[in-house]
Amino acid sequence: MRFICMVWLTSLLGLAAGCRRGQRRVSSDIRRKQTVSQVKNVQGVRSPANGQSSARLSFPAGTVISSDRETNKRYGKKCMGTDGRMSIPTNKEHFYRNLRDRYTNCTVVEGNLELTWLLDTNLDLSFLQHIREETGYVLISDVEVRTIVLPSLQIIWGRDLIKQYGKEEAFALLVIESKMHTLELPALRDIIQGSVGILNNYNLCHIKTIEWNEIISGAEAKYVYEYNFKGFPPRDCTPCHESCERGCWGEGKENCQRFSKINCAAQCNGGRCFGSNPQECCHLFCAGGCTGPKQSDCVACKNFYDDGVCKQECPPMQIYNPTKYKWEKNPEGKYAYGATCVNDCPENLLKDNGACVSACPPKKKAENGECVPCDGPCPESCTFSESQLQGNTVHSGNIDMFRNCTVIEGSLTILDTTFNGFQMIYPNYTFGPRFLHMDPAKLEVFSTLKEVTGFINIQAHHPRFTNLSAFRNLEIIGGRHLTEYFSALYIVKTSLKSLGLKSLQKIRSGAVAILENNDLCYAKKINWQRIMKSQQHRTLLQNNKSPEQCIMERNQCDDQCSGDGCWGPGNTQCLDCKNFQIGDECVGRCDDNLGYFQKPGDNKCKKCDVQCELTCTGEGANNCVKCKNIKDGPFCVDACPSSRYSNKYGECEDCHRNCDGGCKGGENNIGPRGCNSCDKAIVNLDLEVVQCLHESEQCPEGYFYEWVSLADKALCRPCHPLCKKCNGYGFHEDVCLECKGYMPSPTAAEITAGIERFSASPDLTRLNLKVLTRLGGDERVFKVWTIDGRIKFTMVKDKDAATGIAKFVYNVECVLDSIEEILVKAAAQKADFDAKNKGKGAKKPVKQTGKKPSTRQNSTLLKGPSPAVLTARNLNNSNEININEIDNILHQ
Fold it and tell me: Residue 258 and residue 249: Cα distance in Å, rounded?
């Protein structure tokens, strides 16, 4: 009856290929059951009782042995159960071998114990004999083995429960439609959560004699028994052994039911006991009974098992030091792994806050096997609810949710329904939306994916689904959850021709199962042990395209691939290169003419630095044979740094130390061959930079310091041409600290030479002053002065080497002449003088009078020009000159 109401679903759903394939091989009875199981399982319905995924044969974790050796020694081997529910295995022989390998020597099943579709009555199930604890549920369905014996099973925790169509109860133990004669569970003491269902088992004996209230502990849990074979009464069973107090699990005294609850004294408060006396109560931390009153006498632990003792919690990883007022590492600390305390977590799980977890909580990220707080936003990681990603199955309704994901916290399943259309089924077995077909090209959204923490399950066939190149950047499959055959990578009955997983580096936990892919080549040649990190798992590769056929079709690894195999055709799909590697390509050599070099001891061809013209001798911009742009020291660079400039050889040289903000050349000025700017500069009268100075340098003689606040710069501006030293511009006494070419009185040497030098006359005119200034600034002139308004000067060329005095004095005949004309006339004066005195010996050009200039004359030294009064004497008796012409000259 459990499947009759669901038969009509087959024509509506068009479910996975496994259902359709099974219809050709099984009876109509089994076909109806398959329809129900696929409605519940292939589409990934969660059990309403516990919220756990029931995706097609998905296991919550890999088969692992606890890393704590002492715990293993006392508590036994832990293994991971299954989550396939009642779905029909594609290969029953493989399925049986899978069960045998999984549970051999296993004492604690983390997950569910599912014994289904064991149709050979001669199967040996003795590998189940060591199982003591089951953390999820026990399911026995469609079993024809005559006797199932679990002689050591003491406790079923029921942390994961299973529901049956048409039933409200969630079951921790469900035995349904099996032909076995006996189910022997003589050690079973406690079912912590969940009900017991014994439904329609035609031959099953003794089960009705069990006192289930002794075993069932859940507050709302119950015992449900059904026998719906009308016209066929239950089989006659032999009675329990005479030594049995009440019920039994089978024949013989070893199968008598044991009691540790209903016969306890009232002082045990409804708990367990090891006798009927008040002092024979089990410890509160015990579950399933005990052999004595201590925490170490428990059959099982209600909370955590730690090295033979039941505890409320595992020892914390940190303890508080009240003396030092700080937290310190606890040397006795252990991690909570399920209900066991261990020294270290399995590799496929993460450490977080003293526990082994399958995923990090919000605001934390996985790093070196631990969950650590994120610095800022956490890396892009995608986690989906069951309503978003039902049964891990990808389809057109959720494909866009994977866009830009780099890490998927969970698993991925690609089925026929991924491409052909997916029907959503809710936990109450009602229909949800039906999603339309999807082109395989849409899988390209997975091109950003680098890690899947669970498994990848692919069972899909489509003409355009020929490789997994959409997962070309996938590096890690975590295996925190596994699918059929303990697989982290499960590829069965697909249209794939190659895998294309060219970036896959690590499968942390779980097996690799690649089966019955008629067109698939390359997989057989892959060195899977290089990728798989778990020692407890193996590869299963069967019934794919034969190697001979692949060779005939030239579907072989590239010649440049090593013996580790490849993911597909071409030199970019190699697991490793036979010779050398350039990027993701395998090549025969590193061609330096293409800009590559080989690092000693490394088979990877390195690309020369982008700053190299082409060839190089090693890694980095300092090993270029020739620079593409500029060379700065040993390095090739795009451009010289701001403190350097490129010379004519294309090499960087330092700017002058006085430059600020870089330079275009090495000169100590601002211009096309000098500095871009400088903090301090010598400028000319037109404020053009003549030379840059260091900020610590003083202005040279003949210049005064000036700060330009608007430009935030310092200038050395030239003194007035009449000043030798100054603190500002002008020739007044308050700015001109020392005159240039003028002295208040003649020196002794000048007096000896017969040259009397007087201060400027009081009536010195502007015109005289301009001529005086220009002559004083000419480098050919040695000294300039005035006597009674008349301008006189000496020349550098006449300076005597012995005395340092020029002994010939020239007169300015006309102040309206240009400087050149004045000097030409002066030369004429010298020539005339030399001609007249030829042969007469040297004569002093000026008679020494021995007089000193007057105080009045000294006091008027260069105080500035007097009012512009042009007299006949000033103009050297040239009264004909027009006053306007004189003004024009003055303003030039």
Answer: 10
Taking CA atoms, 76 is separated from 64, 79, 106, 357, 600, in Å, by 12, 10, 7, 21, 50
Question: Strands, E, within 752-841: which ranges?
Answer: 781-787, 790-795, 810-811
Residue of 174, 153, 155, 175 whose CA lies nearest to 163: 174
What is the separation, in whole angstroms, between the first and last Cα of the chain? 123
Query: Residue for token digits 């009264």?
Result: 879
Q: What is the DSSP letter of 400?
A: G
**Residue carrying structure tokens 């496994």:** 18
Question: Strands 605-607 and 596-598: what pairing?
Answer: antiparallel
State the Cα angle at 123 between 120 and 126, rounded to 5°: 155
The Cα–Cα gap between 318 and 298 comes to 28
Give 347-377 pLDDT, tens digit per residue: 778 899 999 998 888 888 888 889 999 888 7
SS3 889: helix
SS (H, E, C) 26-74: CCHHHHHHHHHHHHHCCCCCCCCCCCCCCCCCCECCCCCCCCCHHHHHH
**10-residue block means of pLDDT along the chain (892 residues)?**
33 33 32 33 31 31 37 61 80 82 89 92 93 94 93 93 89 94 93 94 91 92 91 87 92 92 88 91 91 92 91 94 92 91 87 90 86 83 60 85 88 92 78 90 94 92 95 92 86 95 92 94 93 85 93 93 94 92 87 82 84 88 91 92 90 90 89 89 86 89 86 85 83 76 50 43 56 82 76 85 80 80 86 78 43 33 28 29 38 38
DSSP code, position 865: P
Strands 506-507 and 476-477: parallel
Are 858 and 851 in contact, with CB atoms under 8 Å apart?
A: no
State how far the Cα of 673 lies from the Cα of 693, in Å rounded to an integer. Answer: 16
Q: At what angle do helices 766-776 and 819-836 cross, to 10 degrees?
A: 80
The CA angle 359-364-365, to the nearest 5 degrees, is: 70
Among 294, 320, 295, 317, CA closest to 306: 295
Of 159, 172, 161, 483, which Cα lies nearest the Cα of 338? 159
**Three-state SS string across 206-264, please?**
CHHHCCHHHCECCCCCCEEEECCCCCCCCCCCCCCCCCCCCCECCCCHHHECCCCCCCC
**For 544-571, how does the pLDDT look when each residue is reduced to its tens digit (9 = 90+)?**
999 999 999 999 999 999 999 999 999 9
d(CA 103, CA 123): 15
Q: Model pTM?
A: 0.54
How many CB atoms are located within 10 Å of the residue 676 CB?
A: 15
Residue with tokens 């756990």: 52
* Distance in angstroms (rounded) separating the CA atoms of residues 664 and 687: 21
**Contact partners, residue 586, CB within 8 Å, separation at least 6:** 558, 560, 561, 571, 572, 574, 577, 578, 579, 580
Q: Which residues contact 136 (CB under 8 A, 6 or more apart)?
A: 81, 109, 111, 112, 113, 157, 158, 159, 160, 161
Of the candidates 662, 185, 503, 52, the one whose C-alpha atom is nearest the C-alpha of residue 654 is: 662
With beta carbons less than 8 A apart as the criterion, state whether 408 and 451 touch.
yes
CA distance 642 to 751: 59
Residue 132 phi/psi, 5-degree rounding, is -105, -35
Given the DSSP bridges, would you call strands 340-342 and 335-337 parallel, antiparallel or unpaired? antiparallel
- Size of the chain in residues: 892
Report how far residue 379's alpha carbon sits from residue 373's, in angstroms, rounded to the nearest whole number: 11
Closest CA to 457 of 53, 22, 11, 114: 53
Contact of 486 with 510, CB cutoff 8 Å:
yes
